[in-house]
Amino acid sequence: MNQIPDYAVYMNGVKKAGPVQTILLTLGSEECELGLETGAFDAVKNILPRESEIDGPDADLAVATRALKDLEQRIGSLFVHRDILMDRRFRGQPAIDIDLNRVPVIWTGSRTILFMYVMLKRLEEEIGNFEPDFVFVETNSAPYRMAWRLAREKGIPAGQFFQGRVWPERVYLETGLGLDWNQSRNAYREMIDNPITGEELTRVTQKLETILQEKTKPVSSQWEVFKSAPGFLNRLHPTRLLAGTRDWLGMRARTAAINPRVLPGELFTPLAKYNRYRNGLKAKRLLLNHQTSFEIIRKKKYAMYFLHVQPELSVEEMAFEYQDQVNTLRNILASLPAEMSLVVKEHSPMLGRRQIDMYSRLLHMPGVILADPFLDSHQLVAHATVVITLTGTAALEAIFYGIPAIVLGSVFFDSFNGIYKPANLQELEKLLSNPDKLTGASREDALRTIASMLRGSVPGMMSRDDTRLQEIDLESAKNMLSELERASHELKPGG
């Protein structure tokens, strides 16, 4: 639902650049009402399955199962259970402030299959009737991914715009289910045989120097996932209190028919929000009391790992096999030579959003060192022997510093020079058995990486942090429309 205002801005922007008709499909009446309020869409339809379609006498599990199996066979991919498993809707959104013992088990295996079947029918009907040239999807939930698969089956591009990583004033169109960014991948390969020259070389060199001198960080996603939680006194502002009370009362009145992400209302009370703040303080104290100073860390030989925001698509889907980060760290540590330590740093905005016992489990792993969660990542990357990440932009920082990096998940830069991508734990163990043999990226590789993100993007605007764009300028609108037309042409036969 939070994305609807952003899509409203994008659609109004694209309409500036050419005659475009838009339709918004929502999952719940709340989303439908919000979409209508924006006035940005030519039609808004709620396609959320009715309870009778899932639990009623007409719900036929055998029919639903056959239809989904047929779709998997047509597409050539066993995706149904995987997409369900990575969807927060179906697995309870595990977080510090949600006690799964208090969340009712709504999504059983049969209900999820029936839910996905109804979504299949709805989406097939809407795509068939509307015949879109492009389908915008957020690929972090199973219904969205279903829409992507159906669109691609019909030769229709589907995806979303993302911010240009090290080029915040630029955007690129992602048409994969993850962060494939094929434009950047292709540009990188082209530059191996055709070195960067002239004005472009000057531009990317300046960008690299700025990154290293000012220690700027690549944008990790469409917009910042979290900002550091405001202090408790800020939460007592009358506007915040009023909004929180309204959300709480609204949550108590919601049903799955209104919002399928419904959770117990008491989780959103002012007391629950205070407890969330208090848990954040506990986590901060624990980490600060057991941290190792950078002055000590830098004298050690270490592998570097940055904990990922979770739940998030970059972990649950793009690094599906490694999403249990504690066990992943255990396997990494077990693969390191005796003279090496494993340094782990928390993502500071995640303080209070993780179960605190996770940090205790890490502290009880001999060989794990916890870094200050507020320490600049550049320092830790620059002095590491190797950087290990699931899909994080820490690997990009490693490229800029010439430090070898291991990427366990799937992301657009996983084939760039200086990056190693093991196929399994056995290959990971082999890589880490002698990390001194790993080669980091050269300066030319770093420049090529930055240039590939420049060539693979266009000038454009995205929302920043928690500030929403009010409108998109005409140049950005034209660029976005041009990217949509390019993607549509590429998927057509002979395109």
Explain what this protein looks like in three dimensions.
The protein is α/β, with parallel strands linked by helices and 495 residues long. It folds into two domains: 4-163 and 458-488, no CATH class; 232-449, Rossmann fold (3-Layer(aba) Sandwich), CATH 3.40.50. Helices cover 48% and strands 10% of the residues. It has 22 helices and twelve strands. Strands 8-7-6-9-10-11 form a six-stranded parallel beta sheet, with helices on both faces. A four-stranded mixed beta sheet has the order 3-4-5-12. The longest helix has 22 residues, at 109-130. The protein is globular and about 65 Å long.
Outline the secondary-structure elements.
Elements: H1 4-17, E1 23-26, H2 29-38, E2 43-46, H3 51-55, H4 61-75, H5 80-85, H6 88-91, H7 109-130, E3 135-136, H8 142-153, E4 158-164, E5 167-174, H9 182-193, H10 198-214, H11 232-235, H12 238-253, H13 270-290, H14 294-297, E6 302-306, H15 313-316, H16 325-335, E7 341-345, H17 357-363, E8 368-370, H18 377-382, E9 386-389, H19 394-401, E10 405-407, E11 419-420, H20 425-433, H21 443-455, E12 458-459, H22 474-491
Parallel strand pairs: 1-2, 3-4, 6-7, 6-9, 7-8, 9-10, 10-11
Antiparallel strand pairs: 4-5, 5-12
Helix pairs in contact: 1-22, 4-7, 7-8, 9-21, 10-21, 16-20, 19-21
